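__Protein archive entry__

___
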Amino acid sequence: MLSEWFVTSQGRYVLDWELAQFDNAVEDVFGYRAVQAGLPETDFLRQNRIPFRFTLALEPGGALAADPLQLPLASQSIDLLALPHVLETHNDPHQVLREAERVLMPEGQLVVSGFNPMSLWRVRQAFSGRCTGAPWDARFISLLQLRDWLRLLGFELNGGTFGCYAPPFGQPKWLARFEFMERAGARWWPILGGVYVVRAIKHVAGARLV
């Protein structure tokens, strides 16, 4: 499970970076209801100020036991939805995004994280094999592909970044030695980070905020 991998040195390296990006992405989103789907052990909405927030997941720990493929939520009832690595772990990521579009309010915000197939992490996955468990058993989805899916559903990207440029070492000392790659990667090869976090806004034809 990805939640178990996040407690390893390698996983903590990724999680710390992702949390910082989610903090930036959700802190200025307002409304009445915010939902996090998956990974209930980690609060990806911790910096958001929407008063009613909860987590739904199939694994223990979620406030609501539910599958992101079939969200037990009313249509156009959510202002903010976080999907940390949810798309990669389902057989039908298109349906997950369709459900996200259904439950989000017009101009609602969606924040998604994923592993980048154009990175050293994908090379490691190719050599590790999916039998080695998370995160190597996930289906990495490129940001270009995700952007196309979102556009078809009426979403527009309005923020995002790549990160975790260091090779996917398992030992903390090696991750520390390659910390310089975070600054170099962001400057010289920004689209080759191991992980991305993006924010998208749902546009509805004829919708107008008052």
The chain has a mean pLDDT of 90. Residues 72 and 127 are 39 Å apart (CA to CA). Helices lie at 2-5, 9-26, 93-103, 120-128, 143-152, 172-177, 180-188.
